[in-house]
Amino acid sequence: MIRFEDVSVTYDGAAEPTVQGVDFEVPEGELVLLAGPSGVGKSTVLGAVSGLVPHFTGGTLSGRVTVAGRDTRTHKPRELADAVGTVGQDPLSHFVTDTVEEELAYGMESLGLAPDVMRRRVEETLDLLGLSDLRDRPITTLSGGQQQRVAIGSVLTPHPSVLVLDEPTSALDPAAAEEVLAVLQRLVHDLGTTVLMAEHRLERVIQYADQVALLPGPGEPPVLGTPAEVMAVSPVYPPVVALGRLAGWSPLPLTVRDARRRAGDLRRQLDGENDIAPQGRGELRDQPHTTRSRQLRTPPELLGAPTPRRWFRRTRTTPAAPTTPSPHTAEVQALSVTRAHITALRHIDLTITPGETIALMGRNGAGKSTLLNSLVGLVTPSSGTIRLGEATPHRTAPQDLVRKVGLVPQEPRDLLCTDTVAAECAAADQDAGADPGTCRALVSELLPGVTDDTHPRDLSEGQRLALALAVVLTARPPLLLLDEPTRGLDYAAKARLVDVLRGLAGEGHAIVLATHDVELAAEVAHRVVLLAEGEVIADGPTADVVVSSPSFAPQVAKILAPQHWLTVSQVRAALHPDHPDPHPGADS
Amino acid sequence: MGAGGTPIRRAAQTPRPQPQRRAQLHPGAWWLWSLSLGTAATRTTNPLLLTLLITVSAYVVATRRPNTPWSRSYGAFARLALAVLLIRLLFATLLGSPIPGTHTLLTLPEMPLPAWAQGVRLGGEVTAEALTFALYDGLKLATLLICVGAANALANPSRLLKSLPGALYEMGVAVVVALTFAPHLIADVQRLRAARRLRGRPDNGIRGLLQVGLPVLEGALERSVSLAAAMDARGYGRTAQVPTAVRRTTAALTLGGLLGVCAGTYGLLTAEGETYGAPVLLIGLAAALAGLRLGGRRSPRTRYRPDRWDVRAWLVATSGVAVAALLTLAAAHDPAALHPGVVPLVAPTLPLWPAAAILLGLLPAFVTPDPKEPS
C-alpha cells in the first residue's frame, strides 16, 4: 500500500540527509508502528507518505514513495487527499472549521463527494468515534482526547486507504489514549485501513502493531520486523520489554497478558524480596502520611472553618495569620477555582512537604494544570487559601515568587525568550537575582555538551525541557512544578529526567508533576494525587494508588500483581542487589 | 471491545436530547437583518429612535444567540460602541465643534496654536449644542457597530462561507483563516505573559507586552504554516479537469466583465459618459458573474448540509429590510422628526410611525427557533 524505495530526504541547508536508505513496504490493512529515539526523522518519513515532504516542507527527496499506486513526486498532497489521511502532532493546528460536524465534512467537501454520501459518512463516523453528542460543539471547547478523535474522524470521512498519524496519544490521558487506539484497531480490522503511526509511548501502542519499523539512529536505515523481533534490538522499548529482557524471556512478551503468563517464576523469585525491595522510594510508605496528619499541623483557628467567602478573603489571608513557620513547602486548603462559570477545582486540600515528589494525575480537563497554575499565582482562587511558607502566590510579586515556586509549563519553549543558550542563562540569572553563571552551571549539569551559541529552537524536546528546568531552578525554588513534562520525550530523555528529578528531590526540593505518563509517575513519585472533575479522588503513596487502578497502573505493576512492584529498576535492584542500574530504559 | 463500548458509554453519560441542528437559520438572513438595522440607523440622528434600534437588536440577540465562543463577541462590540461614543464626546469637548451654540456649559482654557494650525481649536467654550450634536452623531455610529456585533453574535461569519459561489470559496477560506489569526494571537499573548511571570518578570506594562511580541508572531506564523499543511493534505485547492474551451471562456468573461465594470463606473462618474455608463456597467457585471459561475466548475467542491433559505429566513430578512426601507422613506418624508434640531436646542420627540417601523425588527425573536441548548 505504501512503498518506500531507497528514500532519503535532505532538508535545505542541512549537510546530512535526515533519513536515508528507507526501503520498505507497508502491506494493505496493516498497522505499522514507526519507532525510534527523538530526532531520527520519524515525522519526515510520515510526511513523505502524505506528500507534505517535500512538496510543503522543501528539501530534496531521492528515491520513490508510492501510495496506493500514486507516486508522491508527481502527486501533490491535495491530490493524495482521497487516499491518505494525515493527523499531525497538534490536533488544534489541523482544524479548518469551527464545529465538529463541519470539520468531519470538510475533507469530503474538498473532494467533491455527493451531499447524501457526505451526510451518511458523517453520521457513521460520529458513531464510530463516539462523537455524536458533540456534533454541534465548537471544537475549541473540547478536551484533548475529544479533539484528537475529531482530528482522526476528519481524515476518516473521505475513506482514505492509508492513515498516517504522528504521536496520536502523547497528549492524552491513559483512558482517552485507549479509546483512540481502539478506534484505530477497529479501522484496521473491520475496514482494512492501512495505518502508519509514530509514537513515543510504546507501552500504549506496541500491542496493536502488526509490524514495527525502527529507525535506530539519525541517518540509519530502518529495521522492519515483527514487534517481538524489533523490540529485541531496539534502543527504545516499553517497560514490559525491559522486564522481559531482564528476565531473559524469549520471545519477548509485548503485552501485559503475555508477560503475566511467563512471570510465574519471576514472581516466586521476587516473593521473598518484596518487603525490602522498594528501597529509596518506598520508605515513605512507612512514614506518617502527610495528608492525613494535615489537620494537626494547620493553625487551630482554621480547623474546620467554613470555606471563606469571597468578601472575607482579604482579612483571612493576611500574612499576619500564620504565626509558626509551617513544616510544609506548600499548603492548599479548601481551594476552589471557578472560571467562566465552570468549576475547575472544587475544595482541594493538599500539603506538600520538602523532598517529596507528587504526581498529579487524572483525565484531560480534570483540573491538573489549573491546580499548578494556582500554585504559581497565575490563577486566582475563587475561595480557599494557598500558602507557600508565608506567601500567598497570587498576591506575591513575580520577582519574589520565583524564589518560592517554579513552574515548567507544558510547552517549555514559552519560557525561553532569547536566541542563544548563553543569553537565556544570563537573563535567568538576572531575573532570579542569582550570581552570574548559576544558570549556566545548571545547564552544563543537566545538558552536557550544549554550546553557548545554540538557539533554543534547535534543541530537541528533551533538551529544551532541560534548559527550561535549569532556568526555573536558577532561583532555587523549594517547590518545583512540571506540567506534562514527558510529552514528546523518548525513553532515554525520560530516564535522564527521572535522574534529575530524583536528584532534586534528594536535595530537598518538593516536586509536583502533572502527567498522563503512568510509567514516569511510577518511577519518581512518592505520592500520587488523582483528580477528577476538579476534586481529589485519591491521595496516597504511589504503590497504593496506582496498583489498584486499571488505567493508572504501570505495566510492571500489572504484570507482577498482586506484589507491589512498580518499575523495572526496582525489580532489577531486587534481583541483582550488587549492580543497580539507574537507567532502566536508556541502556542500549 | 473498547471501541464497541465507547459510543454506548458516552451515550449513557449524557442522556440529554440531541440538539436540533436543522433549526438553525440561514446566516445570510441574520446578516441581512442586522445590516438593515444598521442602515436604518444611518438614516436618523434621533436618539430615541437610535436607542429603540439598539434595544430591538439587543433583545433579539439576547433571546436568539447560540451558546458559542464567537457569539460572545457581542459584548466586545457593545464596549467598542460605548468607547466610540465617549471618544466622540471627548473630542467635541476638547477640540470644539463647528456647531454655533449659545448655551455655554463650561469654558476650558484655550490653547494658543501656531499659525500653521489655523482652523484647529484646542479648548475654549463647550456649548450644550455642540455636545448634543456629538452625542447624536456618536450614538448613530455606536448603533451601527452594535448592529454589526449582533450579526456576528447571531451567525458565525464563517458559516456565510458556505453560501459563497464555488469560484470564490478558496479566497473566502483564506479570509476566514486570516480572521481567526487575531483570537489566536490574543491567546498566545496571554500564554507568553504568563510565562514571563513564571520567570519572575513583571507581567504588565508596555515593555512586557513588547517583549513577547516577537515570540508571539513566531508562534502565529508557525501555526499558520502547519494549518496550511493540514489544509493541503485534506484536499484544499483541488481542481477538476475542465475542457480548454470552458477555461478560455471563463478567462474571457471574467476579464471582459471586470473591464466593463471599470469602464462603466468611469462613465457614470464623468460628465460625458452618462449615456453609455449604466449599460456598460451592467453588461460588465453580468459577464463577470457568468465568468465566476463558469469558474466554479474548476472547483470540484460540494457542500455539506448547506443552510436552506426557508420561510423563516425570508421573514427575518424582510423584517430587517422593511425597517431600513421605512426609515429611509420617513427620512425623506419628515426629515425634521428624524433629525431633531440642535440649534436651537429642542427635546427630541418620538415620531410614532418610524418607531413602530423599528419595532418590526423584533419579528426574528418570535419566528426563529430558540437556540438555547443545554450544554
From TrEMBL, chain A:
<keyword id="KW-0547">Nucleotide-binding</keyword>
<comment type="similarity">
    <text>Belongs to the ABC transporter superfamily.</text>
</comment>
<feature type="domain" description="ABC transporter">
    <location>
        <begin position="330"/>
        <end position="558"/>
    </location>
</feature>
<feature type="domain" description="ABC transporter">
    <location>
        <begin position="2"/>
        <end position="243"/>
    </location>
</feature>
<keyword id="KW-0813">Transport</keyword>
<dbReference type="InterPro" id="IPR027417">
    <property type="entry name" value="P-loop_NTPase"/>
</dbReference>
<protein>
    <submittedName>
        <fullName>ABC transporter ATP-binding protein</fullName>
    </submittedName>
</protein>
<keyword id="KW-1003">Cell membrane</keyword>
<dbReference type="InterPro" id="IPR050095">
    <property type="entry name" value="ECF_ABC_transporter_ATP-bd"/>
</dbReference>
<dbReference type="InterPro" id="IPR017871">
    <property type="entry name" value="ABC_transporter-like_CS"/>
</dbReference>
<dbReference type="InterPro" id="IPR015856">
    <property type="entry name" value="ABC_transpr_CbiO/EcfA_su"/>
</dbReference>
<dbReference type="GO" id="GO:0005524">
    <property type="term" value="F:ATP binding"/>
</dbReference>
<feature type="compositionally biased region" description="Low complexity">
    <location>
        <begin position="317"/>
        <end position="329"/>
    </location>
</feature>
<feature type="region of interest" description="Disordered">
    <location>
        <begin position="265"/>
        <end position="329"/>
    </location>
</feature>
<keyword id="KW-0067">ATP-binding</keyword>
<keyword id="KW-1278">Translocase</keyword>
<dbReference type="InterPro" id="IPR003439">
    <property type="entry name" value="ABC_transporter-like_ATP-bd"/>
</dbReference>
<dbReference type="InterPro" id="IPR003593">
    <property type="entry name" value="AAA+_ATPase"/>
</dbReference>
<dbReference type="Pfam" id="PF00005">
    <property type="entry name" value="ABC_tran"/>
</dbReference>
<keyword id="KW-0472">Membrane</keyword>
From TrEMBL, chain B:
<feature type="transmembrane region" description="Helical">
    <location>
        <begin position="44"/>
        <end position="62"/>
    </location>
</feature>
<keyword id="KW-1133">Transmembrane helix</keyword>
<feature type="transmembrane region" description="Helical">
    <location>
        <begin position="74"/>
        <end position="95"/>
    </location>
</feature>
<dbReference type="Pfam" id="PF02361">
    <property type="entry name" value="CbiQ"/>
</dbReference>
<feature type="transmembrane region" description="Helical">
    <location>
        <begin position="167"/>
        <end position="187"/>
    </location>
</feature>
<feature type="transmembrane region" description="Helical">
    <location>
        <begin position="251"/>
        <end position="269"/>
    </location>
</feature>
<feature type="transmembrane region" description="Helical">
    <location>
        <begin position="275"/>
        <end position="292"/>
    </location>
</feature>
<feature type="transmembrane region" description="Helical">
    <location>
        <begin position="313"/>
        <end position="332"/>
    </location>
</feature>
<feature type="region of interest" description="Disordered">
    <location>
        <begin position="1"/>
        <end position="22"/>
    </location>
</feature>
<protein>
    <submittedName>
        <fullName>Cobalt ABC transporter permease</fullName>
    </submittedName>
</protein>
<feature type="transmembrane region" description="Helical">
    <location>
        <begin position="352"/>
        <end position="369"/>
    </location>
</feature>
<dbReference type="InterPro" id="IPR003339">
    <property type="entry name" value="ABC/ECF_trnsptr_transmembrane"/>
</dbReference>
<keyword id="KW-0472">Membrane</keyword>
<keyword id="KW-0812">Transmembrane</keyword>
